[in-house]
Amino acid sequence: PKPSAQTVVVAAGRTGASRLYNGIIIDVDDNFFTVAFFSVGLFYSLGKAYNRYLLEEVAFEQRKMENRERKLEEDPSLNELDLRRVESAAWLSVYGRKFRGEGETLE
Q: pTM of this prediction?
């Protein structure tokens, strides 16, 4: 015998031990959403700040390179190595400034 529409609905409504009821009900801890959304917000804020830092760093390096190219075009007697020495003596650096002298460059 062919099952009627009523028996099909009853069969679909049954749940087994390994099935979710309607596919959406999951038992979670009381603070699950508080912790989950707080974590998502924290990671988003940190990621956004880090991305901003990286973009600023790239923009700074780009401006430095453009300035270097402009100076090399303006003064043909200047070579890139000398220009980099002058820049390294002028820029505050976390590397090597304390090991060398205040305005001293390595030659």
A: 0.47
